Amino acid sequence: MKPGIHPVSRPVVFRDRASGFTLLTRSTLDSQRMIEWEDGSTYPVVDVEISSASHAAYTGTSRIVDTAGRVERFERRYGRSVTARP
User: Fold this and answer.
1) Per the domain annotation, does 59 fall within a domain?
2) Smaller CB count within 10 Å for the chain: N or C?
């Protein structure tokens, strides 16, 4: 590897703004805001909008919404019947 071309990787805390979930990991991101972690050390904190703790696909709260009859319109357009075929 060439020296001096790779970004510096450091410990950073990612905080989910929606759920308050925090995760200490390594990242090349940096922040001026600091947070005290459970071990008593302070680390830069990066706020994120969505994480696995608040995303609907990971929490199991996702649902399929059929807006404006998309399924029925598809079935009419391509000739499928509403009843299931064996």
Assistant:
1) yes
2) C
